[in-house]
Amino acid sequence: ASPIGKVCNAVNEEHYMEQIQQLSEKIADLKVSVDNTEKERDFYFSKLRDIEILCQRPELEHLPMTKGIRKILYAADAKDSSLPEANEIITRSPGMFSVSDEAE
Question: Which ranges carry the EB1 C-terminal domain (predicted)?
């Protein structure tokens, strides 16, 4: 091989090694990001599971607030928020939040 060919190969090899190093660092960063995201997901899933268990308690399951929470927890479509419907369940319950009802 000619000296020029050896120089070109060395330059190419150095360039590829730099790319490999950069991509390896990016992979390591993405792995950390995935780990953090999974920890956060598990944290919030655990909280939601605790709320679900509370909503299943017989002394609480008939309450409008519990029904509203269950409406949100068990919504099948992630695109549409169940919050408006859950709010409707809660607010149409007589005497739940109205001050005038308590005075009567």
Answer: 12-82
